[in-house]
């Protein structure tokens, strides 16, 4: 009796349709991560769209040209749900992913109400809720209530550290069933290429005293005021030390004034946005993170991959993990000026092995991490 054989299915798999939603493409860690993931996914054959409330910012120029960019034209993210829902209905997606709490809430409202759209919805939470937000106590209570209500309805809540998952569970009294722990990715090949690029800054490349570097948005959570006060104390013994801060943000005027008030204006360069901070990292004598709170501290991993000496605040669970509880760098309490000044001096005096720092973060290469993201939300 003959047996009919079924021919193998040679139909090409349909490319997954993936949309990323952000408030904007402004310079920041979350925007950087989504730009890297989008570039990786489109290279893997996915159809990728970047949707933003306003399409501006430096990351726009770094997106692969195959990535579609959609401008919702809403100046405030609280107005995003209606146009976002309309776009999702007119442009069906397999998965849509957002990052940062306010964007996550707006995405979930757009997808879920008044009826659920046929799209898998993922939100990424990158910041600890309990650290650095005391000045917004009332709004934070409302935010927590909304998170408890909406996050269980997502297809997945992506967290960059187990501490964030633990905090979300503690806040609602039981674990979220849909939490997926995925670290932020880094494009190490690109970092190493850019680190070797020339940099045009008069303070770098000479031997006129130690150069300190910080990178981040000029915003309250980065606490650059503590760094400036600590740097002023360091200058009492390190008279030729200078500090470069790469980043832009709402506190520029305030920080500029503080530099003059502390008498360090000539030794501090608030340089603004730089699309290649790695060239600075590879040439500085010390990299400093002064943040009040970080969920992952992407910039710390970047600096370690560049082989920098490190001083960081204890701004979340990850710095201690990355730095092996202080074996690979100095860790200070957030907001402690004297401790930071002392740590910076100790770091400058300590011996330094750049290779050990680079190797310590090898597991975060995008070549491995992006595949884990795509495995979560990239299926058809």
Automatic annotation (TrEMBL):
Keywords: Transferase. GO terms for molecular function: glycosyltransferase activity. InterPro entries: Glyco_trans_1, Glyco_trans_4-like_N. Pfam families: Glyco_transf_4, Glycos_transf_1. Residues 27-187 form the Glycosyltransferase subfamily 4-like N-terminal domain. Residues 207-352 form the Glycosyl transferase family domain. This is Putative group 1 glycosyl transferase. It comes from Magnetofaba australis IT-1.
């Amino acid at each position: 009796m003959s047996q009919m054989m079924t021919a193998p299915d040679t139909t090409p798999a349909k490319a997954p349709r993936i949309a990323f939603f952000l408030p904007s493409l402004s310079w920041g860690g979350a925007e950087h991560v989504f730009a890297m993931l989008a570039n990786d996914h489109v290279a893997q054959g996915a159809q990728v769209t970047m949707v933003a409330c306003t399409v501006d910012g430096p990351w726009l120029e770094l997106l692969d040209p195959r990535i579609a960019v959609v401008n919702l034209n809403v100046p405030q993210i609280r107005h995003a749900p209606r146009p976002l829902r309309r776009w999702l209905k007119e442009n069906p997606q397999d998965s849509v992913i957002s990052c940062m709490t306010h964007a996550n809430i707006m995405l979930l409202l757009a997808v879920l109400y008044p009826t659920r759209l046929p799209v898998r919805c993922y939100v990424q939470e990158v910041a600890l809720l309990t650290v650095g937000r005391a000045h917004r106590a009332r709004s934070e209570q409302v935010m927590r209530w909304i998170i408890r209500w909406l996050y269980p309805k997502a297809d997945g809540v992506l967290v960059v550290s187990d501490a964030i998952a633990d905090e979300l569970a503690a806040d609602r009294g039981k674990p979220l069933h849909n939490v997926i722990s995925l670290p932020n990715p880094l494009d190490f090949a690109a970092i190493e290429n850019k680190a070797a690029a020339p940099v045009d800054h008069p303070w770098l490349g000479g031997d006129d005293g130690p150069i300190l570097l910080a990178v981040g948005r000029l915003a309250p959570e980065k606490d650059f005021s503590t760094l400036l006060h600590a740097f002023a104390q360091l200058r009492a013994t390190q008279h030729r030390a200078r500090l470069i801060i790469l980043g832009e943000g709402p506190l520029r005027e305030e920080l500029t004034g503080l530099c003059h008030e502390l008498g360090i204006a000539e030794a501090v360069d608030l340089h603004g946005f730089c699309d290649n901070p790695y060239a600075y990292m590879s040439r500085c004598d010390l990299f400093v993170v002064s943040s009040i709170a970080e969920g992952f501290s992407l910039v710390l991993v970047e600096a370690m991959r560049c082989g920098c000496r490190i001083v960081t605040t204890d701004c979340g669970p990850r710095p201690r993990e990355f730095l092996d509880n202080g074996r690979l760098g100095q860790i200070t309490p957030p907001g402690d000026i004297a401790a930071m000044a002392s740590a910076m001096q100790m770091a400058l005096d300590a011996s330094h092995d750049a290779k050990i720092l680079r190797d310590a973060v090898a597991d975060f290469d995008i070549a491995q991490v992006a595949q884990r993201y795509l495995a979560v939300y990239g299926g058809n």
